[in-house]
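Help: why these numbers?

___
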Amino acid sequence: MQHFLLSSEAVDLSVEDIASMSEAQVRLLIRQMRWPDTKGKPVCPTCNHDRVYEMASGRLKCAACSKLFSETSVTILHSHKLPVRTVLMALFLWVN
């Protein structure tokens, strides 16, 4: 299986594309990057269980250990205060 960052979707991504995305679209993109083996389906960072529920708040909850987490939990983005789209644009500009 090819990693997301090596895929044509990632190569064709521009800062303008990210700027035009909604927060929900950016979160889906981060899911695809974070969990490429499950095609973006979240996996609990605590117990690696793949049965995860999305709460109304947008947070994710593991069915096995009941821990709450998000797409950015246990990453360098976990304690950001800016919108995820802004952080992703900054990272994109820094990397490129």
